[in-house]
Structure to design on (195 residues):
């Protein structure tokens, strides 16, 4: 058995000069993708990568694949999963945030095609903060046992930091506004097949 392939890490300037020859796969949620993505990127959320393996393998056989997310953590996970399948990939250092910070343009759908989107990180911060406030408020006004909610969220955040995973993001990713429409995912898979 051979060792999984290690992903290549491209800096924003390196990716920008090669963008025309790369198949770019954005593994963020559709809401995050709609808020701005690398030019020409196809949206295949991280939880749909296994479904797209044949198409990604097909694209990788024809050229280099660049996997991106907001900061690099999810794309690194996707690259590891693809490496186990023998699919060579590259990831973007700093993700789309680093791309934008380097002054490179992000594509966005027309204003009428999307509503305001929050990044997954922002959704997690909002939800965690709201749950902590609810636990404190209910603990003060209803019964002290409700403070366990705040403690549970705090424990979850510590666990998330230690393991570099996020259960809350996984749960929020299942909400309708974070799920790809079947037509959108099918279009991305069709585009990969045509590469």
């Amino acid at each position: 058995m051979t060792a999984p392939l290690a992903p290549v890490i491209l800096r924003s300037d390196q990716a920008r000069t090669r963008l025309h020859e790369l198949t770019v796969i954005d593994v963020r949620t559709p809401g995050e993708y709609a808020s701005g993505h690398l030019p020409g990127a196809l949206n295949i959320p991280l939880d749909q990568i296994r479904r797209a393996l044949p198409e990604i393998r097909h694209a990788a056989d024809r050229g280099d694949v660049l996997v991106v997310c907001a900061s690099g953590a999810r794309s690194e996970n996707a690259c590891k999963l693809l490496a186990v399948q023998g699919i060579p990939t590259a990831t973007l250092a700093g993700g789309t945030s680093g791309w934008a910070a380097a002054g490179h343009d992000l594509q966005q759908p027309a204003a009428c095609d999307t509503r305001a989107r929050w990044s997954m990180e922002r959704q997690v911060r909002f939800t965690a903060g709201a749950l902590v406030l609810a636990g404190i408020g209910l603990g003060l006004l209803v019964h002290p046992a409700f403070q366990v909610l705040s403690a549970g969220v705090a424990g979850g955040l510590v666990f998330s930091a230690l393991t570099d995973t996020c259960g809350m993001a996984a749960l929020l990713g299942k909400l309708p506004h974070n799920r790809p429409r079947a037509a959108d995912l099918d279009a991305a898979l069709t585009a990969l097949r045509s590469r």
